[in-house]
Amino acid sequence: MGRLLRHRVAPALLIAQIAYIAFIGLLLSGPDTAEIDHNAPSVADDVLTTGLLLLVVLVMGGGAALLGRKEARAWAPPAVRGAWLGLLGLGEIAIAAAFLNAARQESFGPDTVVAALAVAVSAAITAACAGEARHALRSPGPAPQG
Q: Helices then strands (H, E): number in the chain?
């Protein structure tokens, strides 16, 4: 069951999270109402937010590859796999905390259901990352040559 979660389910959940980010990005890219709302973000805020979002997507995509592709696991050294998946696991904990905070501030409704689903997905990915990182850090490195 653990192997199924780590190598099949978690990569699919990560791809679903990336698709969710893209979908929300498309929804929010509609007409700009900042002039009406009087809350136009600065250019620096826009660049920082976009850069951070791309970094998160990169970490998620790399994690999906490390968890789901045997070739990627074989290519990456164990310490790199462990560190990357550890970073991804911490990021998933932050995502779960953000959704829990949002759900706590809202009355029960569709947003609460989405938040509960997001927390469950993040918990599953965190468990898979922890298991695979532990496995990567315990596995022996390549045999010395010579």
A: 7, 0
What is the rounded distance in angstroms from the CA atom of residue 73 to the CA atom of residue 84?
Answer: 11
Q: Is 2 left (phi over 0), alpha (psi -120 to 50) or beta?
A: alpha
- Cβ-based neighbours of 8, under 8 Å, separated by 6 or more: 68
pLDDT tens for 19-40 read 998 888 777 766 665 555 556 6
pTM of the model as a whole? 0.79
Nearest by Cα to 63 from 85, 42, 82, 48: 85
Interatomic CA distance for residues 60 and 63, integer angstroms: 5
pLDDT confidence bin for 143, thresholds 50/70/90: very low
Tokens 């790399």 belong to residue:
62
pLDDT band for 72, please (50, 70, 90 cuts): confident
CA distance 71 to 113: 36
Task: Please give the C-alpha separations between residue 88 and each of 63, 65, 92, 138, in angstroms, as whole numbers.
Answer: 7, 12, 6, 18
Write down the pLDDT at residue 24: 84
